[in-house]
Every structure is written in structure tokens, then in C-alpha cells.
Specification:
This protein has helices at residues 39-44, 163-168; strands spanning 8-10, 17-19, 23-28, 50-58, 68-75, 79-80, 83-84, 99-105, 108-114, 119-124, 129-132, 136-142, 148-155, 172-177, 180-185. Helices cover 6% and strands 45% of the residues.
Length: 187
């Protein structure tokens, strides 16, 4: 009988994942068309400007019940007009799945929206833990001056429904008003 090393490692200070099976993706300003309120401003920005990246470990094949995925997201500081850099946001394709987020570094806002378009928001700060209930769309905004780093754990059968958000958006936005984040109802 042998004791073996783990195939994945997590740096709890930086959020960095390492190992052979890590999947990475990133989004630039050019990838985020129709996400921000001021599309004209977004389209005038450097389309190659990096906004966020994600790395995750798929412990199971996507869609497999009973498995968990684990990942870390990094959102750069910045704004499009008065709106903070943020993730695209999504519902889970399997609406009956939940997720945990926890903040490692930086300052952010977790925007949550139910299927009736009711929004609420929670501050992310180092050490904060956030439970994202089933049937809740979620998106994260970086409201700080440094890279926002947070990790997540979600069921491998959750999937991602980005189209619902692209079609309808969130019913509220996190805007910078007088140098402070405010949750503003969508017009």
C-alpha cells in the first residue's frame, strides 16, 4: 500500500492552482460585449485589455453528478465608464445546484439575482465566505485598486447558463458613485 501526493495544489495566499489538469480561461474588454451599461465606452477601450481570468480543477467530467469543481478567479481593477470591471455572470444550467465563493485578496461585490430578477449584493473581502443558493445568478465586481482574487467550489453537474444573462442582464448594476460602490437598479 502506498501513500501518494495530491495531483493538484492550492496556494491559500495567492489562490493559485497548480497541477496537470488545471483548465484556464480569460476575458478581455473585447470579449465582454453588451455586459457593461456603457457599450459605447467599452467599444472605445483597448479591446485586448485583460479584465479577468479563471483557473479550475475539474475533478470529474462536466455534467457528472456527485463531483465537485474547484477554481480561482482573478478580476483586475478598472472601470468601463462608472461601472466596475466584473465577470459575465451566470445562472447554473442545473438550477438546483448551489456554490461557495470565498475571498482571498482584494475588495469586491458579489451580485446575486433570483429568477424573478430580485437583486442583492454582498461585499467580498479577504476571509469572507459566500453561499450562493440554487436558482441564483451571480456575478462579481472588483471595487478595489488591486486584483480581486476569490475561489469557488461548485457541483460538476451545475453547468453554466450565460445566455440568460446576455439576453436579459442583471436587474441591478454596481456603479462607482462619488468614489463609492452603489447598487443601482437597471433602467
Amino acid at each position: 500500500m502506498n501513500i501518494i501526493d495530491s495531483e493538484i495544489f492550492f496556494d491559500s495566499i495567492t489562490g493559485k492552482l497548480s497541477g496537470n489538469k488545471i483548465i484556464k480561461s480569460s476575458k478581455t474588454i473585447g470579449d465582454l460585449k453588451n455586459i457593461f451599461k456603457d457599450e459605447k465606452e467599452r467599444s472605445a477601450m483597448n479591446q485586448k485589455q485583460f479584465v479577468y481570468r479563471v483557473e479550475f480543477y475539474p475533478s470529474e467530467k462536466s455534467g457528472t453528478c456527485g463531483g465537485l469543481f474547484f477554481g480561482t478567479s482573478y478580476i483586475e481593477p478598472g472601470k468601463v465608464g462608472d461601472e466596475y470591471f466584473m465577470t459575465k455572470g451566470h445562472f447554473h444550467a442545473d438550477r438546483d445546484t448551489a456554490e461557495f465563493y470565498w475571498c482571498i485578496k482584494g475588495k469586491g461585490v458579489l451580485l446575486l439575482m433570483d429568477e424573478d430578477c430580485n437583486c442583492r449584493a454582498e461585499y467580498l473581502k479577504p476571509g469572507s465566505l459566500h453561499y450562493i443558493n440554487k436558482r441564483m445568478a451571480h456575478r462579481v465586481c472588483n471595487i478595489g485598486e488591486e486584483t480581486l482574487v476569490f475561489s469557488a467550489c461548485w457541483p460538476s453537474n451545475a453547468g453554466h447558463d450565460y445566455n440568460s444573462i446576455l439576453e436579459k442582464g442583471f436587474s441591478a448594476r454596481v456603479m462607482c458613485i462619488n468614489d463609492e460602490p452603489e447598487l443601482i437598479k437597471k433602467d
